[in-house]
Amino acid sequence: MKEGATMLKQATLPSAISNIPLESVWSNLKSFFSGLFLPAVGLVVFLGLWSLVAKSVDTSLGKFPGPSAVYNQAIVLIDEHYVQVEKAEAFYERQEQRNAQRVAQDPSYVPKIREYTGAPTYFQQIWTSLYTVMVGFLAASVIAVPLGILCGLSQPVYSAMNPLIQLFKPVSPLAWLPLVTMVVSAVYVSQDPMFSKSFITSAVTVSLCCLWPTLINTAVGVSSIDKDLLNVSKVLRLSPMKHVIKIVMPSSIPMIFTGLRLSLGIGWMVLIAAEMLAQNPGLGKFVWDEFQNGSSESLARIMVAVLTIGLIGFILDRIMLLIQKRVSWDKQANLR
After folding, report:
1. At 108, is the secondary structure helix, strand, or coil?
2. How confident is the model over 212-216, as a mean pLDDT?
3. How many domains does the chain contain in total?
4. Residue 335: inside a domain, yes or no?
5. Distance (Å, rounded) from C-alpha 137 to C-alpha 262?
6. Does residue 336 fall inside a structural domain?
7. Following DSSP, what letter does each residue of 29-86 receive, concatenated?
8. Which domain holds residue 152?
9. 160-178: per-residue pLDDT in tens?
């Protein structure tokens, strides 16, 4: 019986393998090759070339940092973060103990908690940059999307706006920053400000520079809606608001998100330069401080920041792509 069962299994195994569709196997191999293998090869080649080139580049601070030196400084920055966090926790614990003693001696005493004034850690600077760019990006999007829809729906409005768009679109953030700094210093005057002036300056500069891609792409998307959809809206006698919500927005989502992704990428690039000059305590200030520091580890630490900026930019773009897939009516569209 056992021999018969074994012979039966051996007989059915080739037939089972032959039943596997070759198209499915090829599709899986192709997906693996393009999704994992090729990116891994590209990364290995990049690291190899980086390591070779770094050894042959001499600077005033020594050799240009290779991958191993950058990795070591990344570990150092992580360790510094945890050390600084422990110092802050100890600082607040001491304050609580002192306040508890004062209250025990004098029940009418009102405790005061002072903020920890230690230098921000690398991860805190990353959070500051992310928060700043999102505020600037959202502010620009709130202005650009409705204005782009208006320009796409109305040719006279577009004709009136187009000269301004073409005039301000190529202006560098380095040109905007002094003007924004002066205006913020004159307007944002408060004894107890909610936000620092450096944060406001950086966020407004980001908004001014990432406004235009969203506005232009939204206008193009709205103006190129299929005529059949416009005729459907007329037949149904939709109100202007319903026309925008039911027809314009769903049809324009691909172009709108193209503009949003471009704007977010531009805003993230602009932010680093803005933080350098405005001294907003984010990644831009970190790069500037390390450049001014001039120690033997400064180049490696700057390179850590460069890789961090690139990685965060990639993640932000992927997040926008996921949001686009979620809100788009065409779930089969090939989005990259």
Report:
1. coil
2. 94
3. 1
4. no
5. 11
6. no
7. HHHHIIIIIHHHHHHHHHHHHHHHHHHT-EETTEEPP-HHHHHHHHHHHHHHHHHHHH
8. 122-185+194-327
9. 999 999 999 999 888 898 9
